[in-house]
Design a protein that fits this description.
By secondary structure, the chain is an alpha/beta fold. The chain folds into three domains: 271 residues, TIM Barrel (Alpha-Beta Barrel); 88 residues, no CATH class; 93 residues, 2-Layer Sandwich (Sulfite Reductase Hemoprotein, domain 1). It contains 13 helices and 20 strands. Strands 3-4-5-6-7-8-9-10 form an eight-stranded parallel barrel, surrounded by seven helices. Strands 11, 12, 13, 14 and 15 form a five-stranded mixed sheet that branches. Strands 16-17-18-19-20 form a five-stranded mixed sheet, with helices on one face.
Length: 486
């Protein structure tokens, strides 16, 4: 699939993006926004690593106001990198930040409008809420216009507004409809300095939503730049594979003007991965014809057949079953890591094979990598060979060491295959953006954790040690929850 989508070129601060500009790399600080020196030092490290835009959480008016101190100290140190304020729930905070930074990220799911649990909307109520939203956004448009500030309409699967959920459900279609509604409000106010992002922790959802967004924009004759990312991808090889699969697939189709690789690690570690994705999937990328093959199981050499990873866990080998064979005789393993996830996902969409076999050469001997095959199938949401961890990459709102907490939970519970466990840093990425997780481990205040089963809170304000023990108990003995808890 090739969308051939060319966006409109805009400028964020002094940085042109979109159109035929290079794909730009973005990351986000995870230092407290009120700690000016720590935040500035992290931004400098990001810039030295190759980051081109930096997002900073502004949870309230005080944090928004401190963005000026951060900007000024960066300039004193000779660093002129575009800054983005990340805003949730508070329009006034966005208005203050818009006069300071180069770009504002707002989330239509929580930026403005009423929020009612399971509310049913009449047609008039639906449109009245849109009119209210438009009125609440007008002051922000005026400030952004005056200061040449860009707005990113940043939509996350799992944090859609109740209005959108009522009409579309938590779906790619709902994500795109939310974006279109906000674009229309911007256009009615003659505001066009926009970028868009549709993110999800599910790779197929993220890919589908972005493709649909491009399709809808083409129908309307719009061409706003698109920012790509698989949100809450986690850490390690698993987090990288999800990001490579989602971002790489779309870049290979000509979709995407900026990107962020969201890892639950130090932000600087995101940048080399992002740079390599861009190098691997430049615009007009052509897939080598001899890398991907569709063969039947009976055609595979006998000594390689045990290494076929079947997509259905209990699949019975049969000579006629289709196997996606990915062969990389001339690539090192770090190169294969960036190619195989996208090669497989494209094949899966087109051919729906029954199994996956990844081959490479080591010491002139043909070998198979079943570990990578299992990880790719899990990233694609097709077969789960271990617990699935959804983990936000951390930001200035996080009040505990989420990278450490993710590692602790993975070590204790990673063997429980088939479970989806979310480790979230704050209320913004909390119950909403757990996106269908079976259990949630959510930071709430300094050093405190709330535990969720699905979207229901079970235990509140636990220490991390208590929370990990309770989570394991809750998973292994689901009927052990006291009636007075939650």
């Amino acid at each position: 699939m090739n969308q051939h989508f060319i966006s409109n070129e805009i400028t964020v601060g002094n940085l042109p993006l979109g159109g035929n500009q290079p794909v730009r790399i973005q990351s986000m600080t995870n230092t407290p926004t009120q700690d000016t020196e720590a935040t500035v030092n992290q931004i400098i490290r990001l810039a030295k690593a190759g980051c081109e835009l930096v997002r900073i959480a502004a949870a309230d008016v005080k944090e928004a106001e401190n963005l000026k101190n951060i900007r000024n100290l960066l300039r004193q140190k000779g660093v002129d990198i575009p800054l983005i304020a990340d805003i949730h729930f508070q329009p006034k905070t966005a208005e203050i930040a818009a006069g300071i930074v180069d770009k504002i990220r707002i989330n239509p799911g929580n930026f403005t409008g009423s929020h009612h649990k399971n509310k049913k909307y009449s047609e008039e109520e639906y449109h009245q809420e849109l009119r209210n939203t438009a009125a609440n956004l007008k002051p922000l448009f005026n400030i952004c216009e005056k200061n040449h500030t860009t707005i990113r309409i940043g939509i996350n699967h799992g944090s859609l507004s109740d209005r959108i959920l009522y009409r579309y459900g938590n779906t790619p279609e709902g994500m795109v409809s939310s974006a279109l509604e906000f674009i229309q409000i911007c256009r009615e106010n003659d505001f066009h300095n926009l970028t868009l992002s549709l993110k999800a922790s599910s790779v197929p959802v993220m890919i589908k939503a972005n493709r649909l967004l491009v399709e809808k924009m083409k129908q309307h004759g719009w061409n706003y730049p698109i920012h790509l990312g698989v949100t809450e991808a986690g850490s390690g090889t698993e987090g990288r594979i999800k990001s490579i699969m989602g971002i790489g697939t779309l870049l290979s189709e000509g979709i995407g003007d900026t990107l962020r690789v969201s890892l639950t690690e130090a932000p600087e570690k995101e940048i080399p991965v992002a740079r390599k994705i861009i190098r691997t999937y430049p615009r007009h990328f052509v897939f080598p014809g001899n890398t991907i093959q569709q063969i039947r199981y009976g055609e595979i050499e006998n000594h390689l057949r045990p290494f076929v990873v079947w997509i259905k866990e209990n699949e019975t080998p049969d000579a006629e079953k289709k196997v996606c064979l990915l062969s990389y005789p001339d690539l090192q393993m770090d190169e294969i890591l960036f190619r195989a996830p996208v090669d497989f996902f494209r094949t899966w969409e087109q051919e729906k094979p029954d199994g996956l076999l990844i081959l490479h050469r080591k010491n002139n001997t043909e070998e198979s990598d079943t570990t990578l095959a299992f990880q790719i199938l899990q990233a694609a949401g097709l077969r789960f060979s271990q617990a699935e961890f959804i983990a936000c990459p951390s930001c200035g709102r996080t009040q505990f060491d989420i990278e450490k907490e993710l590692q602790r939970v993975q070590k204790r519970l990673g063997h429980l295959k088939g479970l989806k466990i979310a480790i979230m840093g704050c209320f913004v990425n909390g119950p909403g953006e757990m996106a269908g997780a079976d259990y949630g481990y959510v930071g709430t205040g300094k050093g405190k954790v709330n535990l969720y089963k699905k979207n229901k809170i079970i235990f509140k304000y636990l220490s991390p040690d208590e929370a990990l023990n309770k989570l394991e108990e809750l998973i292994l003995n689901p009927n052990s929850v006291p009636e007075n808890e939650g």
